[in-house]
Structures are given as structure tokens and as C-alpha cells.
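Example record used in the benchmark description.
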Amino acid sequence: MPRHNTGLGLTPKEIAAAFDDPKWTECYPPVLSVDQAAALLQVPKNTLYLWSSRGLLKGCGRRMGKHLRLFRNRLLQHVFNQGLSDHE
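Model output (C-alpha cells):
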């Protein structure tokens, strides 16, 4: 059975507005460490590493040596709009 896109359709403006409060921007800056991204998405950091290794976070970040850095807004847009599926 084909899966339907159940994304929320968050716009870049809506995502940016969520971080208008300086408190949120301090906790979750534009470029996130894995710990910060895991806290933001409320998932274990091993889950982020798994998603990354499976290619499910393409376009959301980069490896810098042994460290993974994720672009906050791209990550949120990807997770909530496109979803994380091996079978797209």
C-alpha cells in the first residue's frame, strides 16, 4: 500500500519564528551538535547517528571530522515535512 505524505507542511518562516525568542536560539543555535539536535527532537542521540548513517538526513548537516553538525531549520523541515523513510 503506498504511503501518503503526512508532513506538516511547515514553512521556513514558521520554523524561524519558533526561534524568535533568544532563549530558544541560545539553546538551539542555527548549527546544532548531535546532543542539541537530539534534545530538540526529543530522541536519543544514537537515533540521529542511525538516521544519518542510513542517509535519512541528507541535506541536513555535515560531518566535521568525527563530529556530526546539523542545520537546525533544515533538520526540522526535513523531519516534519518530508519524514524519515527508507522507502521514499
